[in-house]
Amino acid sequence: MIQKNDQGSHKDRHANIGFGTIGFETLNYIAHHPQLADRPKIMETPYVPTVADPKKKVAPYAEEIKMLTAQAFDATMMDRLSQG
Predict the structure, then answer these.
(1) Model pLDDT for residues 47-69, shown as the tens digit of each residue
(2) The predicted structure's pLDDT at residue 76
(3) What pTM was estimated for this model as a whole?
(4) Count of Cβ atoms closer than 10 Å to residue 10 Cβ
(5) Where would I find the H helices in the chain?
(6) Rounded to the nearest 5 degrees, what angle is found at the Cα of 60, between the Cα atoms of 59 and 65?
(7) What value, to the nearest 5°, has the Cα angle with vertex 78 and ends 61 and 49?
(8) I need a labelling partner for 14 at 20 to 30 A (CA). Which of 21, 37, 45, 59 fits?
């Protein structure tokens, strides 16, 4: 888990799905909660920098959506995307 800022720091920082302080299980629970089924969801997560060129960044959204659709966390996602 990568923690960008402590709670109360007055910073709005985002982590990729499952890699932040909230965790995948909680986000997955919210995404699939029956009372929220008809509510739109907005994905606001950072691009992933590549190892070969940190200035080149890859959009993680397709992979994050796959995880939420499958309701299974992929701990290798960031490493795979960073190879890029």
Answers:
(1) 999 999 989 999 999 999 999 99
(2) 97
(3) 0.83
(4) 5
(5) 24-31, 61-70, 77-82
(6) 130
(7) 80
(8) 37
